[in-house]
Design brief:
There is one protein chain. With about 110 residues, the protein is mainly alpha-helical. It has one domain (about 1-80): Orthogonal Bundle (DNA polymerase, domain 1), CATH 1.10.150.280. About 65% of the residues lie in helices and about 0% in strands. It has four helices and no strands. The protein is rod-shaped and about 75 Å long. The termini are far apart.
């Protein structure tokens, strides 16, 4: 069950902003747990292989279970951060709309 949840989180992360097969060097470097050397290894690996999930990174030298777990957590945190930012934007727009409605109502009363 835990593995299924982890795979779901990874798939969700890949679906919303990160595809290891097309991610740029900068995008890969932004992931906690991936440095210059690992980015170069990913870029080299994906020339001849497809990366379907973070788990596939274990096929690349330097990526063990711990580093993949760190990457999975980083992706999960990124999703949470995006959700939080989106919610804040929505709430801000809602408040602007309420204010505009209130101002319109006030203008109509004149």
């Amino acid at each position: 069950m835990k593995r299924v949840l982890i795979l779901f989180v990874i798939a969700f992360g890949l679906a919303f902003g990160l595809d290891f097969n097309t991610a740029s060097k900068e995008e890969l470097l932004a992931i906690k747990g991936i440095g210059e050397k690992k980015v170069e290894r990913i870029l080299e690996y994906r020339k001849t292989n497809e990366i379907n999930s973070a788990k596939d990174l274990t096929n690349i030298k330097g990526f063990g279970k711990k580093s993949v777990k760190k990457i999975e957590n980083s992706l999960k945190d990124g999703i949470k951060s995006k959700k939080t930012k989106a919610k804040k934007k929505i709430n801000k727009k809602k408040n602007q709309l309420k204010k505009a409605k209130s101002d319109l109502k006030e203008l109509k009363s004149f």
